[in-house]
Specification:
Elements lengths: L3 H7 L2 H4 L3 E5 L8 H12 L3 E5 L2 H9 L1
Parallel strand pairs: 1-2
Length: 64
């Protein structure tokens, strides 16, 4: 598993603001505080990040 805090710190804000990132949860694991923190922190910094529990929803969101 990636350390989500370190991943956030490594983002180059100027290069990635056009990026759409869909985070797909491991089946059966559900949301955790770390994943919610990651999504909220990324979104507050202007990144378009969403967390999904199924791949169909994630792909639909990415394609929209």
């Amino acid at each position: 598993m990636v350390d989500l805090y370190l991943k956030i710190l490594s983002y180059d804000q100027h290069a990635l603001q056009c990026l759409n990132e869909a985070v797909l949860l491991t089946p059966g694991k559900g949301f955790s505080e770390g994943v919610e923190f990651y999504e909220a922190t990324c979104r507050s910094r202007g990144f378009n990040v969403r967390v999904f529990s199924d791949d169909v929803s994630a792909l639909e969101w990415l394609a929209a």
